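chain below, 707 aa
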Amino acid sequence: MNQHHNRTAIAAIALALTSFAGSAAAQQDAFQWLENVEGKKSMEWVTARNAETRAKLKDDAGFAKLKDDLLVVLNSKDRIPGIYKMGDFVYNFWTDAANPRGVWRRTTLEEYRKATPAWETVLDIDAIGKAENVNWVFKGANCREPVYDRCLISLSRGGADAVTVREFDIASKSFVKDGFTLPEAKLSADWRDLNSIYVATDFGAGSMTDSGYPRIIKEWKRGTPLQNATTLLEGKTTDMSVSAQLSRHQNHQYELLHRQITFYTAEHFYRDGDKLNRLEVPAKADIGFFRDQMLVTLREDWTVNGRTYVSGSVLATGFDSFKQGGREFTVLFTPSASTSYVGAAETKNFLLLQTLEDVKSRLTEWKLEDGKWSSRQVNLPTMGAVGVAGWDAENSDAYTLSFSDYLTPAVYMMANAGSDQRELLKSAPAFFDASAYETVQQFATSKDGTKVPYFVVKRKDAKLDGNNPTLLYGYGGFLVPLTPSYSGGLGKSWLEKGGVYVVANIRGGGEYGPRWHEAALKGNRQRAYDDFAAVAQDLISKKITSPRHLGAMGGSNGGLLAGVALTQRPDLFNAVVSQVPLLDMQRFNKLLAGASWMGEYGNPDVKAEWDFIRRYSPYHNVKAGVKYPNVLFITSTRDDRVHPGHARKMAAKMLKQGHKNVWYYENIEGGHGGAANNEQRADMSAITYTFLWNMLKPDNAANAVHK
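prediction:
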C-alpha cells in the first residue's frame, strides 16, 4: 500500500468463514465492468472522462503555469542526488528532462563532494526502453555483497509492481548473456552466492497466493532451468507471500526465509545446511541481525522467561544462545505514550535506532562492545523527517544523515557514529521563500476523547477569519507514520498562493507505534475517520478555515480516507481529492493485491465483518440527492496494487446519481505511484492542485458547496 509504504510484498489471509454472496448484503454492482482494466469499453470510458477533465483545464492559465513550475522543481539539477557506497564507487539513480526514465550512475566520493561531480553512466533506462520499444521503469538493483560484481536489475512496464529481472555485470556495464533472468511477475530475488539465487516468483499454476504474490521459494543454480530449482519453503495460497534473503554483517552470515501469513503475522526461518529451523518469536514480530546478535522488533506483547516485553519494543540477544534456548534480551527501545520506533541502520560498531516523540524524529546510537550494549543520544537539527543509512557497515562507522521539515530544504551529510560532528555533502535549493511561514503542531480531540496531533504550515501573518484555503492531508493505516518533510512542489502549488497545509497524524498510522495502528484496525476503523473529522473541526473552530475553504486529500489507503470524508462528512469540506484509492470495500479483496489487506480492514465475505466495513465503504454510502463536496478521483491504469476500478466505479456511480461536481483523471502509466516520469508527475500534480485551488480559494463562489 503506499509509499505508502515500503512493505510491498505482504498480505492477509482470507478466512474460510461463512460466505454470504448472493445474500441481500451482496448487492448487484452495475459498474463492475469498469474493473476490466484495459478492456475496450472501460478504456473508452476512461478516455472520455480524461477528455472532460482536460477540457475544464484547457483555458486555465494557472494550470499551465503550475505544471511548468512543478516540472522545473522535479527536473532541477540542483536536487540532492542521494548516494550509496558499493565497492570503490558511490551510486545514484537520476531523472531529469534529458533522462525522463532515468540513468543509474556512479562516481567517487571525492568527486561527489564537488559542486558539479562527473558521473559515469552505468545503465541508461531511456536507451533500453527505446531499443526494446518498452516503457521501462527502473525498480532497483540488488547487487551481490560485499564484492558488488553482479546485480539483479528489476524493470517494470509503466511502473507496475510486477517486474522482470535481469543479471547485470558491473565491470562491463552490460547484461549477462545467459545470466539469471526472470519473466514479469510480482516476485522477489536475492543473491545466495555468485552461482545461486533465492527466487520467489510465478512458477506456474498454483504457485501464487490469493493476493497475487509468490507462495514458493526456490534456490536456483546458475546454468540450470528455472523449473529445476530446489524448493526451500512453500506457503499456503491463503498466505500473503514468501521471501528469502542473505543477511551479512561483520563476518556473520544468515540465510533467512519468511512466510508472511497475513499482513501482520509471519513465520521466520533460518537455514542451516539443508535444514530449515523456525525462529521461536511472536507472529507479530520482525527480525534482523547485527554481528552475532538477533534483533527482534515486537508488534505485540511477548512474555518469555517470566518477563513481559511490550509491543513496540526492540530487543537484542546473542543468536547462538537463542538457538540453544536462551531467552535473555537487552532492551534497546521501549515505547512510551509519546514515543515509537521507526527503523534502524547499522555501521561497523553501532546500531542506529530511529524513533519518534510526538511525531518528531529522534536518533539513538547503540554500541556493541565485548558483548555489551551502550547508548548515546544523537543531536538532531530539526523536528522533521530524518534519513539514516550506513555507509560501509563492514569497514566503517560512517553513515549518511539527511533531514528536512516542511519549511527546510533537505540537507545531506556524512556523519560518524560516536560523534555529532558532520560533513555537509549537499544541500537542496529552496523552491520558495519560507521566511514568511511557520509550522506549528496542535492536537485535536477525537470523538472518543483521544488527542490527535496534527501539523499546520501557514503564513505567520495569516488571519484567523475562516477564509484561508486549507488542505488537510491524511493516511492513517498500515503502521505508516507521516513525518514533516520538505516539498518544493507543495510550496509552489499551495503555500505561495496563500494556502494553509495541514497533516493529520490519525490513528491507524505508525506515529505512536503498534498501539496507534491497532486502535483503528478492522472493526475499529471508524476511529481513523473520526480523528480526521476532529482535526477538520478543530481547524474550523480555530477559524484557520471554514467548510467553504477546506479540502481533504489522501492516496491509496488515504484515498479511502478521502472517500469516507466525502461521504460521511460532506458538511466539513468543499473539495476532496482521492488518489489511487480503495473505495469499493465489498470487493477490495477480489481485486489485485486486495486480499493482502484483510488484516487491516477485515474480510467483507464474512457477514459479521462486512457489517462494520459496509458502514464506511464509500462506494456503498454515496447517495443521490446529497450535496457532496467537489471531488477529484485520480488514478493509474498501470496500478497493479490498488485496482483502478475503485476510482472508476465511484466516479461512474456518482455521475449516474446526477452529481455534477465530479472530476476524474486516469494516467495510462504510472503504477501505484500514479506517474512513471517527471512529466507525468508534474501534470497530475498540476491537475490536483489547480482543482483544489479553484474550489477552495478565497473567492470561490462559483464552486462553493457551502454558501
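The radius of gyration is 25 Å. Confidence is low (pLDDT under 50) at residues 1-26.
thats it, cya
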